[in-house]
From TrEMBL:
Residues 1-17 form the signal peptide. It holds the Pfam family TsaD. Gene3D superfamilies: 3.30.420.40. Keywords: Signal. This is O-sialoglycoprotein endopeptidase-like 1. The keyword Amino-acid biosynthesis does not apply. It comes from the Eukaryota. Residues 22-183 form the Gcp-like domain. It comes from Oryzias melastigma.
Length: 234
């Protein structure tokens, strides 16, 4: 069996970094229930008891009809809201805000919706262009984001709606990017694949594109998503 990799969209800023950065900005390690958790785990835990409607962040890139992700605009929206709350509560950066649960819930929700919308467009593009397997088409989500149960649930709603099946590695394998890259090295070493001796000339490339990049074609297609909300409930 052979695989063809096609890139429909890329991430302009790696998604895994937004949530840990928000957690750091909120000083969540000072929260009694989060001191031993990673940033991502802390946001997921606090979000469960937060009200996301208190911070109605805009989903990024709403008017760009492609499959690229960007979290830069969302990050500045969140930072602005945090600064505003700090001013209201009269506290310095580095002190816990009273509304961290609500900010966590709103952040997690907006990230989930952004991922779902861009992926929804990718699924529609693939269907229109015959790029999906006709039997049992699968959406795979991996990496740090795939350890978040809210995001998994959101993408399950999407795959059920579009007739796909969502596959995610077990959360313990959805970890830090650096660890996953290092593990790829371990696997390669074991298989003896792509191993170079120290005195061989190596040509480094700043980017490692995956397969054929057709993101410009996807943008030109400009697929609009059907209106209507997706209901995410637990
Ligand atoms: C920590 O968790 C406990 C148990 O879920 C909860 O009752 C408590 O309110 C939490 N503490 C804070 C500061 O949110």
């Amino acid at each position: 069996m052979s695989f063809i990799f096609i890139t429909l969209g890329t991430c302009l800023i790696v998604s895994d970094t937004l949530v840990p950065r928000v957690a750091r900005r909120l000083s969540l390690t000072k929260h009694p229930n989060c001191s031993t958790l990673s940033g991502g785990q802390a946001i997921e835990l606090l979000a469960r008891s937060g009200d996301r409607r208190k911070f109605p962040f805009r989903t990024p890139m709403g008017r760009i009809y492609d499959c690229c992700f960007s979290f830069a605009g969302l990050r500045s929206q969140i930072t602005m809201s945090i600064m505003k709350k700090e001013a209201e509560e009269g506290i310095e950066q580095g002190t816990l805000l009273s509304c961290v649960n609500d900010i966590a819930a709103a952040t997690q929700h907006t990230v989930a919706v952004h991922l779902a919308k861009r992926t929804h467009r990718a699924i529609l593009f693939c269907k229109e262009n015959g790029l999906l397997s006709s039997e049992d088409p699968i959406l795979v989500m991996s990496g740090g984001v795939a350890s978040n149960q809210y995001i998994r649930k959101t993408l399950t709603v999407l795959t059920e709606k579009t007739g796909l099946r969502l596959l995610c590695p077990p959360p313990r394998f959805c970890t830090d990017n650096g660890v996953m890259i290092a593990w790829n090295g371990v696997e390669r070493l074991r298989e003896g694949k792509g191993i170079l001796s120290p005195n061989e000339d190596v040509c480094y490339e700043p980017k490692a594109p995956l397969g054929v990049d057709i993101s410009a074609k996807v943008r030109t297609a400009g697929i609009r998503l059907p209106s209507g909300r997706m209901k995410i409930s637990f």
